[in-house]
């Protein structure tokens, strides 16, 4: 009983990982096709609102095929976008009521949400998105049992999978001055704590990032805030027309096989400066990874003997300015401190090439 009381105090709302990310946009079939290229398979359709569930491993993505209500309004404001996400919880009603008591706000205009028009346990999320709390998973039964099942999806999933397993983290881009607002939200409502803090500077721009982690250690939400008017964070906010989900990180047990399969299907990844690969052995002596294969696939590596290794790579923009991260953890539970700078540099280089920012010769 003592351990249970301690758990309740540490994890007051009983969070237990991500359940789904919800997408909307003017061309939903193109979004579904893009997710299928990444190894996801349509499994169910919500008969109430034509939302399609796509699955791979323990990851679920939902796409509004005929957006209405909140999803339609969100797509009108943001274009192709992530209009919601869901946390698994032990008890949805208790978690929802507890969240309101701890300072969260009930979502307005939930009509048109992914779970149908009357799902009651939805909070206001980042940039006007929806934050659902869900207790139908695992032994409690699937949330999608009441949806229309697509025949043969299990075999189709086995054939289409590229080895992605779980949703590792989901990064928000926020307006300047709002990083602490949102870290405070996740802390006060769900008892997240700060896992990492970054102060990243490139040739011409910079950002702050505060990585928050939930009590279950399965939900990670990094928060990015620009240090200036021209950084990639500000460009995202301009393109997206507001704050929102910047990228979604998905795990794999073999990043080389996963990335090579995705490349073969036509998925494009962000590039990295060549000198990054030339310095890997000096930066991480004895890492034991195939540097030439990393160079060929533009895969990044970070970590240490004490913390373990982390391999990661980022796709090009996939839905508007939203992109995906593919990550393999070999004992390392961080975010790739060294790679964070490399990612920033690579995106900033692309901004310079496109003329978004200018640097002195």
From TrEMBL:
Pfam families assigned to the protein according to its UniProt record, in alphabetical order: Glyoxalase (PF00903), Glyoxalase_5 (PF14696)
Needed co-factor(s): Fe cation
E.C. number(s) listed in UniProt: 1.13.11.27
InterPro entries per record: 4OHPhenylPyrv_dOase (IPR005956), 4OHPhenylPyrv_dOase_C (IPR041735), Glyas_Bleomycin-R_OHBP_Dase (IPR029068), Glyas_Fos-R_dOase_dom (IPR004360), VOC_core (IPR037523)
Family designation: Belongs to the 4HPPD family.
Name the UniProt record assigns to this protein: 4-hydroxyphenylpyruvate dioxygenase
Domain VOC: 17-136, 166-316
Molecular function via GO: 4-hydroxyphenylpyruvate dioxygenase activity
Alphabetic keyword roster: Dioxygenase, Iron, Metal-binding, Oxidoreductase, Repeat
